[in-house]
Specification:
Blueprint lengths: L1 H32 L23 H9 L7 E9 L6 H15 L9 E5 L6 E9 L4 H14 L6 E5 H12 L3 H21 L4 H25 L7 H32 L3 H28 L7 H4 L1 H27 L20 H6 L2 H12 L1 H16 L21 H13 L8 E6 L3 H9 L4 E6 L18 E8 L6 H15 L7 E3 L1 H35 L3 H28 L9 H31 L1 H28 L7 H33 L17
Antiparallel strand pairs: 1-3, 1-4, 2-3, 5-7, 5-8, 6-7
Helix pairs in contact: 1-7, 1-11, 4-5, 5-15, 6-7, 6-8, 6-21, 7-8, 7-11, 8-9, 8-11, 8-21, 9-11, 9-18, 9-20, 13-21, 14-19, 14-22, 17-18, 18-19, 18-20, 19-20, 19-22, 20-21, 20-22, 21-22
Amino acid sequence: MSTRLERPTRRSRWWVGAALLVALVWILGAGPLGAFLGKLGEVQTNDPSAFLPDGSESTEVDRIAEDFDRADTVPAIVVLSGDDDLTEPRLGEVGVLAERIGEEPWAAEQVVGPIPGTEDPSVAQLIVPIDNTYDTGDSVDALRALLADEAVDGLEAQVTGPAGYAADLVAAFGGIDSTLLLVAVAAVLVILIAVYRSPLLPILVVVASLLALGLSGALVYLAADIGLVSLNGQSQGILFILVVGACTDYALLLVARYREELAAREHVPEAVMAAVRGVTGPVLASGGTVILGLLCLLAADLNSTSSLGPVVAIGIVAAMLSAMTFLPAALALCGRAAFWPTAPHHSQHEEGQTTDRVIEQHPFWGRITRVVAARPRALWLGTTALLIAAAVFAPQFSAEGTGQDEVFRTEVEAVDGQETLERGFGTDSSAAPAMVVADADHLDEIIAAAEDTPGVETATAMTEPGPPGAEGPVLQEDGRVLVEATLEAAPETTAAVDTIRDLRENVREVRGADALVGGVSATDLDTRETAQRDFTVVVPLVLLVVFLVLIPLLRSLVAPLLLMAVNVLSFATALGVGTLVFDHVLKLPGADPVVPLFAFVFLVALGIDYSIFLMSRAREETLVHGHREGILRALTVTGGVITSAGVVLAATFAALAVIPLLFLLQLAFLVAFGVLVDALIVRTLLIPALSLDVGPRLWWPGRAGRSRENH
């Protein structure tokens, strides 16, 4: 008798020691690594090259054009405006200010100006060339501080131009490691408290997420610092959201299974181990699906798209490790007290209970299960029709890009300064001409072809610098010349993009010139076309990867095909609703070309998670109770946890909207709405009803399809 009593005690002591060791390794190891989250800005690359299409014509022109620029600079435009016209004495004061700015170390050359406004004489501008060896954001901050300290009386100074926009973009991402993280964690904590009605368990889950975030931040910092990955602001924001959301989802699945096992087993260590065994397959399949799906982005040509995959994949690995090691250790140490004051007791076990009894013990989900079981065909046909009704608007989704003024959702100085600049000088398209690089022997032919292009005002070759008013010889670099073509349309407009298409066709007809066309509008065109190419390449890869993951998990060919079809429909539904909301409710100016691709990857890779959680449990139950009973039992016992996981992930993605950038607002809505559709409609109604209607053939050719039926 004494021997039997001693074994659990020894086993418990061993478990306490092992669990304590695992928890301490995480807390003392990954905890301090959280400091790297604040350092990620040091290894970010938010300059335009981080978002350009890799290997495109405009990118190649930008590289070649650097050889023609004697100084490696980024122009900042200081716009000064007052209530009255700027007289010569006032312009003289501005000139003194220009000399003072030119003394700064980050000012690469002499400041150009003051240049009085041609449309409004109360406006003038200074062109400040900022040395590219200095951080552009820091240099613009210093310039703005100087303008505030040494302001010209009665004149408002604003910094715009490429440097101003770059600095404001960096500032917009500045809230990622503070505001975004606080909002996401707060949302998760509130939802978990509402779900579990326990003070301790939500804290354990949040701590697991924060430890995963600390580990992923350190790994990403190291990888970016040594050049293995490229990190930008949008990748960092998505990393934070996905790590917190994914780790919480995996934790919810583990906790739900642990609660079941506590009701079926007397000893906590046995319940923890059983829970871990029960969810390891789904979690590995879920995490593996997300990781492999994200790594498919490496096939993209857009730098900002291809760099996202490995960054976020690192985060998902950290989320899985924390949820499956730290959290089980913490649950083992806390025991049943983790669920206080509603801790489950062994007397509540469900082992051997009938499906009706299981349904009775889950009143809310039991009612839903009965609805699904009563008329499965009518239910899946009805929900499919509802999703299709929304999906028909998906082809109308406009992802043609926006102007740089429309990227920001709040007032920023660069945009306000640009408006003042246009008031004083008009819409000057000469500030962003198309650049044509060609063989020097065909210069005259290239200029003629460019000027014959509809929409091109003038085309002139860049010349050697010389005395003011004197025209120097044509500048050549490695036998090439650079021709600047001024467009009639403003940069980044549809008309400008169309002109670039025509210009490229015309200059390519000059044989032997090897002409390439770049510039702001050309980059816009290449970004749109590259994003479309990336969508057609990455989407099939993601679908193939997810399908190949589902086959071994479900031991079936039919079930994965149905799940994939349903999830693609769910994505189309989210895109269709997004079209209506963006165009008719929020009246947004358009969407970044990569928004549909990012939304697809996240919704398919993450949305399939809920189907994985449901169907892996359904297969487990089917092998014991038959197909119909297995589907109904799986829906009943996983309903609460999957719904909670979906709400948590939707809330964390919605937190992206706190970053004042149009791209992140649209991505936040599409993914959050799509995840809710997957968790609340697709997984709750459509898939269970469709599975019942298809019958055991769902599991063909696996063993589950040959298990006995309980009618």
